[in-house]
Design goal:
2 copies of one chain form a homodimer. Chain A has about 575 residues and is of the alpha/beta class. Chain A is about 25% helix and about 25% strand. In chain A, helix 3 (about 105-110) packs across helix 4 (about 115-125) and helix 5 packs parallel to helix 7 (about 180-195). The termini of chain A are far apart.
């Protein structure tokens, strides 16, 4: 800050010169003290200078509305909304989001650090302040092929960029607990840079959790129980309470929030699709849930603001107070948390749900052409089983975890799996698409309900290979080939005909279109998935497959290298005996 | 941290190798969650690695005691205990102090940045972790002469030293609110360095307080009312609740602590003399007071630990949790907070009140010879008053603030003040001692009660000129001359005879002796002051004079340049008309 700017700030705060903007007649939420202050908010050079009686060059009448600090989403993957940073800004800002801590590990898994550069540049096109955590585990594990591999040297270099807040979720938690070279090198790079490290430790407890915390990891967004939450808080970890499209842990965790520990609790989306955002909102939705579960509204707002700022060292925001960025959300009430206006750095940027700034987009052409698949054919989908007794991946509706089940199946004369229409088990395949390895891994999936055709998609966390499930090898192969031809996305086929599709040209995982467009495509796809392909009503047809390849979420997963048992963190045979 | 060290930490936390030390059978205070955990604390390389069931190379049986994080005093002036950093460590550690945030502005006012170097070096001789804030206002105001002047350039350079946490209390609050060049230059230096700035804003409110906060000042330890506390907390300031030897604001402020704002409240001493430490302790005394006033003990402990760590960015301490420094205090109970053992960085450093490490001391000879007084004589104590109606400095017992009073006095034929034994008004003088200016300022003091002789001392916050009060010019002059001859300290005289004294050779404000020695000297001095000189029983004879020259504490003060009205921040005539 220059001396002139500081003098102007002080002179304005002291009332000697008029403010740039005064937001009048607001009930200002004081997240530091848990109280409300009636007054005018004076803003100069994008910063709040004071609350009191002020003159302004411009004024805005808040008409008695509540003024809360701008909401900070403490952990989100933009790519999970299938849209670009510019578009996520357009979607989230009208719901009160002013800062997001984004981990771009999806696109970085596809395109490496070149993708980080693209995400940083694209972020400049939106008023939403997008701060990135550097993806720590690319690939998530050594048990899969991704489009890139980020080593400790790359991490060290990337963390010198001040736009990067810290090291992203350390998904290889067994590696941390086991103190592997992979984990140690990456952790040391973050410690040297003096930045926070996000965690990801589903189910971890006792001495293993101690080891994870002792490694210097300071957050967790995979916590789903009050017991796990209490244990993590005692370790000094912040709990990022998740309410996304697939995972809804917030409600369960609210039972564990106390006046003593509430400052250690934050709100996050993790993965939030356009439909969820358009229909239910963003952190405004989290806040509604908090208050519905009996939490004091200011405590809830503090979780969405100050706590996140503290956790990530964003000392210039998180409250409405002198010297802080004027990121302000006007709310009609503290029950429904309907957002009427949003100010970012003192500018009115959203009004009654409408994003006001012009929407411009960065060139994303470097992120296209992401398919490098060798020798794929239907032949590669065949199984040669040595036994009828096999492991099956059990779908557990409502989440992204799976069960490790067993089944007796029928085999053909060549040892291949033979589908029994009376039993809900079908083939699932992962086709490596980044490195021309020619890898195709096939396993069996129970509970998907599909009765015709096949689904293929190039969204498959986190390595984003092609994942497909279907009734016949022919339709699965056709779906994969169609997907490759269209440059990635989602495709639904039946008997050699494409029924529905959504192209995602940016890395095969993101659209160039609007959130509304994505939502319409997804709605159409879901309708076809359930009605034409017969996928069970209680199963999310795409999300279920998206996470089927993520070898850090329990229990049984499939990577391009084979069937993977997350609980023992190693591959497992398809046959049980 | 090296990779080997991190691996060892993780391996120990996971229970694969034994810890260096295990503190067994402790009830561990969890300041993050406000709960208690029964278990063993495993420590390796000076850090906690976990709480659970652990094997250790060494073990220490806590016998069911409470284990709290080491106490952090968020604001203290070591020099106010009249001892060196080595000695303050010996005094505070056995009472649970493991880190102090010290502002060495007393000695720096005398000896400049050379004194900062001495204080940094001396701090290395004690296990107490002494972190310094860089004195911001040396001299405190332009209205006095000190031994040094620290400008923005010096501040900029000194703040590159990582041992300096931030910029010390910005006492020139009118300068900040008025955005003077003096204040702006210094504030900018701190902002550029990205460090916190301590505040000092007694009585500030409304737009003026907004301006002070907008300048980026983030703490206040001068807050004395619940109303002022609430206003500051809403501004994002941390409240350092003071309980020192002279100022006892903690009790009043506790009424303002709520579950919502408690994380913004810290505990501090500011000025704490050996007597207070030896008799009542350190932050253990604060904790007793907190609990006696109904505060939950863990909330109180959090104020003495985690809150201070958060406020000053000390991310390696403040709790007992994996990865943090093993600064641990064992307490018999959570009512009396009797400290039985203290561990710092995993080493037992105090046991049942005894400081265990050997006490070594740095050479302090560069801090001696601090007197440069020109042409002093009794003649300079004479007044030439133009009126009988004068301003008097009114002593307000129990604090360091004074009142701006008026009185009708008797004048001699030469216009000099003539003492009336029936009226409790005497002369007060400040003799400049750093720069050979020859300045001597004389004023009138009411309520000191002195009936014989004179007192002189070279402790006079913050510029530490010589201050004297007495019945006759002759005894005042004799006291000043004796003080200069002995190289500084405190001297009490009567009718040309020295009754009692305490030499303070380090800068004229600190002893090379122990806290016990200082206490014995002070006890003897106080006895003589009250019994031989007749100073009022409700007046602290030395502390009252020590703060008489500090032109940032209301209401009327005396510097070497004259009588100063703090409320208008300017000099004022001795005569009222």
């Amino acid at each position: 800050m220059t001396k002139t700017a500081l003098k102007k700030r002080i002179d304005t705060a002291a009332g000697r010169i008029p403010a740039d903007l005064v937001i009048q007649n607001a009930k200002v939420i004081n997240v530091y003290g848990g109280t409300m202050i009636e007054g005018d908010i004076a803003i100069t050079d994008g910063c709040v200078v004071g609350i009191g009686a002020y003159e302004g060059i411009h004024t805005y009448d808040a008409k008695g509305k509540f003024a809360a600090p701008g909401f900070i989403d403490s952990h989100i993957h933009i790519e999970s909304a299938y849209v670009t940073p510019e578009e996520i800004g357009r979607l989230l800002v009208p719901r009160g989001g002013t800062t997001i801590i984004a981990d771009p590990h999806e696109i970085v898994n596809v395109k490496g650090l070149e993708a980080l550069t693209y995400m940083l540049e694209a972020a400049e096109e939106t008023v939403l302040d997008i701060r990135y955590m550097l993806p720590s585990c690319v690939p998530a594990t050594p048990f899969e092929h991704a489009g890139a591999s980020i080593g400790a040297t790359e991490i060290e270099k990337a963390l010198t960029d001040k736009r990067i807040l810290g090291l992203g979720e350390f998904m290889d938690f067994p590696g941390v607990v086991g103190a592997t070279e992979f984990a140690l090198d990456r952790l040391i790079a973050a410690h040297e840079a003096g930045v926070p490290i996000d965690g990801h430790s589903p189910g971890l407890s006792g001495l293993a959790l101690n080891a994870y915390a002792a490694a210097g990891i300071s957050t967790d967004h995979e916590c789903t129980t009050v017991e796990g939450m209490q244990e993590r808080i005692a370790q000094g970890m912040y709990i990022l309470m998740r309410n996304g499209s697939a995972c809804h842990d917030l409600e369960a965790l609210l039972a564990g929030v106390t006046p003593e520990n509430s400052t250690r609790c934050l709100l996050c989306s993790d993965d939030r699709q356009p439909k969820t955002i358009l229909e239910r909102g963003h952190l405004d939705d989290h806040l509604r849930i908090c208050v519905r579960h009996g939490l004091d509204p200011i405590t809830a707002i503090r979780m969405a603001t100050l706590n996140a700022a503290n956790c990530f060292g964003l000392s210039d925001r998180g409250a409405i107070a002198p010297g802080l960025r004027a990121d302000i959300v006007l709310l009609d009430d503290l029950t429904d948390f309907r957002v009427s206006q949003v100010f970012i750095a003192g500018e009115l940027v959203a009004d009654e749900g409408e994003y006001l700034p012009p929407v411009t987009r960065r060139d994303s052409s470097a992120m296209e052409s992401s398919f490098h698949v060798k020798d794929f054919s239907a032949q590669k989908l065949k199984l040669q089983l040595n036994s009828d007794k096999v492991h099956v991946i059990d779908i557990l509706p409502g989440g992204i975890a799976t069960g490790k089940g067993t089944a007796d199946i029928k085999r053909g004369p060549d040892g291949d799996f033979m589908r029994d229409a009376a039993v809900d088990i079908v083939k699932l395949a992962v086709v490596e698409r980044h490195q021309n390895t020619g890898n195709v891994a096939v396993a069996l999936l129970r509970g998907y309900g599909i009765q015709a055709g096949a689904v293929a998609l190039s969204i498959a966390h986190d390595s984003h290979n092609i994942i497909t499930a279907g009734i016949t090898d022919a339709d699965m192969a056709f779906a994969v080939e169609t997907l490759i031809a269209m440059g990635g996305g989602v495709v639904l086929v039946k008997d050699g005909v494409v029924l529905e599709s959504m192209p995602l040209p940016i890395g095969g995982i993101m659209s160039k279109e609007s959130g509304q467009w994505v939502d319409e495509r997804l709605t159409a796809i879901h309708e076809v998935a359930h009605q034409e392909l017969g996928i069970s009503g209680d199963v999310e047809p795409l999300m279920t497959l998206c996470f089927m390849s993520l070898p850090v979420i329990p229990e049984l997963k499939l990577t391009d290298m084979g069937l993977f048992d997350v609980t023992v963190f190693d591959f497992v045979d398809l046959e049980t005996e």
